[in-house]
Amino acid sequence: MMIKTKSYRYFLFYKPFDVLSQFTSDIPGQRNLSEFGLPSGIYAAGRLDRDSEGLLLLTDDGKLIEKLLNPQNGHEREYWVQVEGEIQEEHLRQLEKGVVIGGGYKTRSAQAFFLEKELIPEERNPPIRFRKHIPTSWIRLVLSEGKNRQVRKMTAAVGFPTLRLIRHRILSHSLENLKMGEFKEISFPF
Predict the structure, then answer these.
(1) 77-170 CATH choice from 3.40.50.720, 3.30.70.1560, 3.40.50.300, 3.40.630.30
(2) What is the pLDDT of residues 40-78, one digit of tens each?
(3) Where are the alpha helices (DSSP H) in the chain?
(4) Is 3.30.70.580 the CATH classification of the domain at 10-70+173-186?
(5) Catalytic machinery residues
(6) Which residue has the higher pLDDT, 124 or 182?
(7) pTM to 2 decimals?
């Protein structure tokens, strides 16, 4: 007798700003994943806040979701972050060493870089708040942990509030070739 094994499915999705990382909402009119034509029976392996945008991994592979959500199994996530003010090299070094955020928690070491000018994304709709006399900076942060609103708390801890947050990469997969609101199926392992 042949035993049939379950075939899992994996999808990358470019979540727009102001969309929940779930398929339902108790708030009338709140956008969520149900409006994008994603297959049924899949769930987000992690989340992005409503006011963040970028890459979500969705799957029906519950064991993989558990593995990715377990803090002991750190995996790389890369964020592109627009901050208020002119961030300097010394602030990037502070982010790399780890900073103390809510409740006295010190973040793990990270990688921090200036985002190359040619990679700076287009304005989002609606645009971020604009202040004529306050410049902004773009950085890349690579983390191996994912505490609630961690990137925002980290940039604030070094004096630069986050204005826009885009998760660009999870493990080896990035937003490359995906437009906002689009998804594509990928194969495992990745």
Answers:
(1) 3.30.70.1560
(2) 999 999 889 999 999 999 999 988 888 887 777 778 999
(3) 62-69, 89-97, 150-157
(4) yes
(5) 49
(6) 182
(7) 0.91
